[in-house]
Design a protein that fits this description.
Elements (H helix, E strand, L loop, with lengths): L1 H27 L6 H43 L10 H10 L7 H30 L7 H6 L9 H21 L3 H4 L13
């Protein structure tokens, strides 16, 4: 299981490293455009999806181990013959024949946002707004600050602000309503979470 934990940690570490590197790069020079941080935010969002897929696979493997522990080892420790007790073997064989994730990608994204990524999204967004405010110099008015949101003279500021606010609000909502990791890993409900005989 430590290999899967390392795979999850590697994705998070890369996202954090990228965020810190882009922060250093963008705040280090006034000539670096602010939308570099928007690309960093997009990379963080891609990292969330990659890690959520890995987390769903990890959860599936943990469920299989749970079936084996409850069906085989628990019966063996009680002094019973685990190979002839219960339906745990059929449950496990059925899962191996038609394997499917027991938590969806959406639930995994919510769990990973809540666990790791929401603060990283807030950090990149705060650095982006700071970059807009301090480079090339402090804005003289709110209108000047608003016009700094323009991306390369192509994308208007209202669209950039709308997309940024949408990403922040959706991420916050998903993280706030998402299950905590501990709840997911208890395997309490659903047809796959049935009591293992």
């Amino acid at each position: 299981m430590s290999v899967w934990r390392q795979r999850l940690d590697v994705t998070t570490n890369w996202a954090m490293l990228l965020a810190v590197a882009l922060t250093t790069f963008s705040l280090g020079s006034r000539d670096v455009p602010h939308f570099i941080l928007l690309l960093g935010l997009a990379a963080v969002l891609v990292s969330i999806v990659i890690e959520a897929q890995r987390y769903a696979n990890l959860h599936h493997i943990l469920w299989r181990l749970h079936v084996i522990e409850r069906g085989y080892f628990a019966a063996m420790l009680r002094g019973e013959d685990p190979l002839h007790q219960g339906e745990w073997r059929d449950l496990l064989a059925g899962d191996l024949e038609t394997s499917r994730a027991y938590i969806g990608l959406f639930s995994a994204i919510r769990a990973r946002l809540r666990r790791n990524y929401i603060l990283l999204i807030y950090f990149v967004t705060a650095v982006w707004i700071t970059k807009l405010f301090i480079h090339p110099s402090s804005p003289a008015s709110a209108v000047e600050f608003y016009h700094r949101f323009t991306v390369a003279g192509i994308i208007p500021p209202w669209l950039v602000v709308l997309l940024a606010v949408t990403i922040i609000l959706v991420s916050t909502l998903l993280a706030a309503t998402g299950p905590c990791t501990e709840e997911i890993e208890e395997f309490p409900q659903g047809p796959a979470r049935q009591e293992i005989p």
